[in-house]
User: Fold RNA helicase from Ostreococcus lucimarinus.
Amino acid sequence: MAGFWRPGADAPSTSAPSTLLTLDVDADADATGTLIQFEKNPKASLSARRRALPIAAHADELMYCVEKHQTTVIVGHTGCGKTTQIPQYLRDGGWCGGGATVAVTQPRRVAAQTVAQRVAEEVGCVIGDTVGYAIRFEDVCTPGKTEIKFCTDGALLRELAEDPLLTKYSVVIVDEAHERTLATDVLLGLLKKVQRARRDLRLIVSSATIQAESFAAFFDASGEDDDGDGPSRKPIIMSVEGRAHGVLIHYLDEPTGDYVLSAVETALEVHRNEGPGDILIFLTGEGEIDDAVNLLEEEAREMKRDPRRSHDALDLVVCPLYAGLNPAAQLEAFRPPRRGARKVVVATNVAETSVTIEGVVYVIDSCFAKQKAFDPERGMESLFVAPASKASTNQRAGRAGRVRPGKCFRLCTEIDYRSLADVTAPEIVRSDLASTVLQIKAMGIDNIMNFEWVSPPPAANMIKALELLYALRALDDDAKLTSPLGVHLAEIPLEPQLGKMLLVSGEMGCVREALTVAAYMQVQSLWVTHRGQKKRLDEMRDRFAVEEGDAVMMLNIHDAYCDARNQAKFASNNMLNHRALLRAGDVRSQLKKHLARLGVVTNSSCGDDTVPIRRAIAAGFFANAATLAPYGGGPDGSVFHSLRAMSARARARELRIHPSSALFRSRPQCVAYCSAVRTDREYMRDVTVVEADWLRELAPHFYRAVSANPTTQ
DNA sequence: ACACATAAT
Assistant:
């Protein structure tokens, strides 16, 4: 490939200057689901190892900051030990006296669990005693006894609904705030509000360098009335360095037209010319990963056959890695390669934050990622491939430096690299806000337009959310939460359309079916993905598929699964993900408890009649309805028109049934769908056959309003 | 032939 940077002896001296990027490295404290931990000095005592962490040298300074300031923004580089140590310093410093608790929030469940376990060991207690954790389905804490509580940001949000002043807590640590997940952003906004009412509540926000100033500015309340007592209301920023190996960054001389191919070529160059160490490639999705893996495996086979190959040359072992991959194949990517082999892991963004692969010395970065966007006009979320941010590519590069100094090859020119955004736009500005708005309203915050966001979402997104909640009858004419419907919808831990489906199923006599549908919609990757077995998967799906659509197919799967004598075997025989099925069962029983608490009789069933459950789905998802285009589905027979958009716009939106749907080859007249994605085209997923009359009957306000005055919807 | 970044209540 012309102009391509070549590593090793061929490296042209005129190539773009390489930058030495200092990144943090330490196996100790990266709490994000590390599977294999290694100790630098396994013989050192626990306390000696704790003292050796970079954060230990800053313990006194930190305690001073927390004492004197309401908010401390801590820039703690990966591996400095902040997540495990700060809560313990606070406890030692007396912040847990008198039944007070220190809360530490994490964006991910595994992180909350594993760090809690680690800290419990360091404190020397059983998990759930002095140190505990709380995530959606597990509350491993002892009220009155637990002094350090790790939880997901979402779990703390739920707690805020019941205890708006967080009276149990003396300090809240928001860890990994720079990731700016939806839950983190909502939590930060609410915490600012809590701090007004509770001057004694201390906040520690952990952030990457680049966002520290904006967090500090957000929490700055020094301009507000100050009685002079208590801590300063001006946040303070403190920084703790990590343990770092250098990562040498290389860029392309010329842009590449095909980053998948470039990634493969670079991996092969590294393999031939560079010293030992595994390779991690970042691409955007399953399709690209499959292509790259196929190309690399082909090359690996050819290298083995090459008669000129030296006897001590390393074999190449290639592993795909993405969240939807079957668990056995995922494990393969984490296992150290066999002796005499070098491992190449071809991954999505999972390997950027959620998991850590030990032994990686070379990172090859496409500098692209799939991103979510929300289109308020269509009320639809979409996914598209977009350039990654500098923050994201730096995080990726850092994955090369965990073991020893590493190298990162960015598949763009340095000039193009400079044009990347500094950080990825926070999720809150790119999302459907219906659930978020409902939750905030349920906390008694009526005037949502005045909510203080770290980054305010676009007004159009907010309006769309309010419209949907109004159409669902969760909000009244004054945009106030309705009772009981709106209040109940906020209590159910589901998106409001699914919540509505559940509540309505009580009246329609199909709660058992609705619970199953709702639970199955919560698990991603119901089917096991095997490379090269797509066709077989389609066949398996067709075994359960029915003409009524995906929801009824889920009911069939659930029934067959429950009847199976050996459920694990049933799952593997049918290419179903057993873990997903188990989780669906778990979610189902939780949802059942929620409904029972709200006074819904939970054992009604519509049996073999699918009309009631399909009507319940229509009652929740009436806004997502589409009809087959005139003349049998348009030119290629597959086109549907969105019902809502058809009246609002002169030209109807084209929608198609997603290839993963049971209805992919069917041509029903009218359908409701639970989600849609835009890739090259717009696809409906989780599709159910409904009747247009049901929509008019179940959501007369919505469809009458649309046809009477198109511009108002 | 067409296809699902990542999390969470």
In short: Residues 1-40, 706-713 of chain A have pLDDT under 50 and may be disordered. The two ends of chain A are 52 Å apart (CA to CA). The first strand of chain A starts at residue 19 and ends at 24.
